[in-house]
């Protein structure tokens, strides 16, 4: 199956999964998509800077980030037209349509210049999307290729410090939504960071429930 076929099939799958879920997505996910707000707080784009989110979903993270950093401009892409419909409505209600631009695209292969009129961004972030993307490694490569500054990624870890029963219960629940925590997430990102000569910082949050990775940028004080 070719890459365009995979992209089209995945777009249709995500639309089917979230056609109705998108209306309650933020209300339900806030209880288990942990670490997102910490990641957003660490973005710290420069004044007048640009921030891109891959797999922006309902726009929740973009809205939060735009409010936290009022002197930056934000961009988001998602493969699901259904999710983007919710994102555009939420962004408009928040009064942020002038600072947040959206586009439908595959996070594994996109043309930022064609979508947004720019080829680089001061910050790029991915929140709980790699665990849903076939060929997620290509999304990491895509993020690094358009990042003039740092790349920030948070996603499910391997729950290494949590009881086995909890891990099994979580994996069963996530499977219903076509979500698969990536065992090689940290090692693959570290490999790509090294290949591009960028620094790599890894944090295991909540006993391994979530993993937070930052590629490039200064180390926190």
From TrEMBL:
Question: Which InterPro entries does the UniProt record give?
Answer: CFA/CMAS, Methyltransf_25, SAM-dependent_MTases_sf
Q: Which UniProt keywords apply?
A: Methyltransferase, Transferase
The entry lists its GO molecular-function terms as: methyltransferase activity
GO annotation (BP), single: methylation
Which CDD domains does the protein's record reference? Answer: AdoMet_MTases (cd02440)
Is rRNA-binding tagged as a keyword?
A: no
Signal sequence range:
none
Keyword Lyase set for record? no
Q: Methyltransferase domain: from which residue to which, for each copy?
A: 51-140
Recorded hits in PANTHER family, A to Z, give: CYCLOPROPANE-FATTY-ACYL-PHOSPHOLIPID SYNTHASE, FATTY ACID C-METHYL TRANSFERASE
This protein's name: S-adenosylmethionine-diacylgycerolhomoserine-N-methyltransferase
Record organism: Aminobacter aganoensis
